[in-house]
């Protein structure tokens, strides 16, 4: 007799690893698995990379807005370091231009209090041997003439870069296929399949699919698998509004990151973002929120006041209750690994997540400790306060 959570497999064809979710995290893990000789199968309920991975801004921000070193900061640095070689690999395998741009991030300072905060950020990062520089008002305006005249200085973080997040997700998916993996869109996973406590596959509308390992990377929808995982997975959707403003020529040269960020593209488009709202699974674009975003962006770069509003959208990012990623095996569910909760850093953290989770699946351990991010840790109540 089958126990609760158990489903008879109609087919014993087994994939080495099944990934539940086809965003940039799932595609990055699949790529590193395929590169390591495994046969991954990515299952995505909609289109590949259509949720937070498409709605993000492509910021590779490890330093510009990090006020203190912690385990996530180390993960950010390690992932940022992987990007140049990973970009070269996937572009070579797919011919997709992912628009990796070493723009650098500038944090403008408008008040004395902000100056103290940014100088402190620069100081401790310099003690770590990282490139970070304080610029006075004249130097800041020289680096970025498009800023408002009242700028008093700024923090310059040249190693924080930018990428086309949609193109990168598609390139990872394409490179996975080239290496023998399978990426399947329009195939929602309804549940995990178990034999006793062990996870042995997934249940889809077409029936069960067997897998030697299952990686749960379902983003903001992870909590729907909480019962099957057998542990709390307090992942909530963090809504973020983004707008796109278009000018004939870019108003800025660099990524400017204040209360909001402005990312210039060579086309004259500027990505403006983003908000953090805990309003459930609501992706409606709210006029008042977009207006507030535009007001903050045009205050930073006055030339944007003449720009055309080309687009606006909202996406749902996966946020754990403590604000940390959730990465690693579930001890009480052999065969199940979780990779979610990247909050506002999913694009940045995709390479290191892919590498470490693939190592864990293939070799049984990762080259960096994932202890702070283990899925069975204790979580505080409520959503995170910051990202």
In short:
The chain is α/β, with parallel strands linked by helices and 387 residues long.
Molecular structure report:
This protein has 387 residues and is of the alpha/beta class. The chain folds into 3 domains: 14-83 and 165-233 and 322-373, FAD/NAD(P)-binding domain (3-Layer(bba) Sandwich), CATH 3.50.50.60; 105-157, no CATH class; 235-320, 2-Layer Sandwich (D-Amino Acid Oxidase, Chain A, domain 2), CATH 3.30.9. It is 29% helix and 26% strand. It is built from 9 helices and 18 strands. Strands 1, 2, 8, 9, 10, 11, 17 and 18 form an 8-stranded mixed β-sheet that branches. Strand 14 and strand 15 form a beta hairpin. It is globular and about 65 Å long. The mean pLDDT is 95.
Helix content: 25-40%
Number of helical stretches of at least 4 residues: 9
CATH class bucket of the largest domain: Alpha Beta
Low-pLDDT runs of 5+ residues are: none
- Indicate how many domains the architecture comprises: 3
| Span between termini | 46 Å
Strand tally is 18
What's the order of the H and E elements?
Answer: EHEHEHEHEHEEHEEEEHEEEEHEEEH
Q: What percentage of the residues does DSSP assign to strands (E)?
A: 25-35%
Indicate the structural class: alpha/beta
Mean pLDDT: 95
Biggest beta sheet summary: 8 strands, mixed
The CATH fourth-level homologous superfamily of the largest domain? FAD/NAD(P)-binding domain
């Amino acid at each position: 007799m089958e126990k609760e959570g158990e489903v008879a497999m109609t087919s014993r064809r087994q994939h080495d690893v099944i990934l539940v979710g086809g965003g940039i995290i799932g595609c990055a893990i699949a790529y590193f698995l395929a590169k390591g000789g495994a046969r991954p199968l990515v299952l995505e309920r909609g289109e590949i990379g259509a949720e937070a991975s498409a709605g993000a801004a492509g910021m590779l921000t490890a330093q510009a807005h990090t006020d203190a070193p912690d385990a996530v900061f180390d993960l950010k640095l390690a992932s940022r370091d992987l990007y140049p070689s990973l970009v070269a690999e996937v572009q070579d395998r797919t011919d997709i231009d992912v628009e990796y741009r070493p723009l650098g991030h500038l944090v403008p300072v408008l008040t004395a209090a902000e100056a103290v905060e940014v100088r402190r950020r620069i100081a401790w990062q310099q003690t770590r041997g990282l490139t970070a520089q304080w610029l006075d008002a004249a130097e800041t305006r020289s680096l970025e003439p498009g800023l408002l005249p009242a700028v008093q200085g700024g923090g310059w973080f040249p190693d924080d870069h930018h990428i086309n997040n949609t193109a990168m997700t598609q390139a990872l998916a394409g490179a996975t296929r080239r290496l023998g993996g399978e990426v399947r869109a329009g195939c929602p996973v309804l549940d995990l399949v178990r034999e006793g406590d062990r996870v042995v596959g997934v249940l889809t509308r077409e029936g069960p699919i067997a897998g030697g390992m299952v990686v749960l990377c379902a983003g903001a929808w992870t909590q729907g698998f909480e019962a099957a995982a057998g542990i709390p997975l307090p992942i909530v959707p963090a809504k973020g509004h983004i707008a796109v403003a278009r000018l004939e020529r870019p108003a800025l040269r660099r990524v400017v990151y204040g209360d909001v960020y402005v990312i210039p593209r060579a086309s004259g488009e500027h990505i403006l973002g983003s908000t953090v709202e805990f309003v459930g699974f609501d992706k409606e674009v709210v006029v008042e929120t977009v207006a507030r975003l535009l007001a903050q962006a045009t205050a930073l770069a006055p030339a944007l006041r003449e720009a055309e509003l080309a687009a606006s959208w909202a996406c749902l990012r996966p946020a754990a209750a403590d604000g940390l990623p959730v990465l690693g095996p579930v001890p009480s569910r052999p065969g199940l690994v979780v990779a979610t909760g990247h909050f506002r850093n999913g694009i940045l953290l995709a390479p290191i997540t892919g590498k470490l989770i693939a190592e864990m699946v293939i070799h049984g351990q990762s080259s960096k400790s994932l202890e702070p991010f283990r899925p069975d840790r204790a979580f505080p109540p409520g959503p995170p306060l910051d990202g």
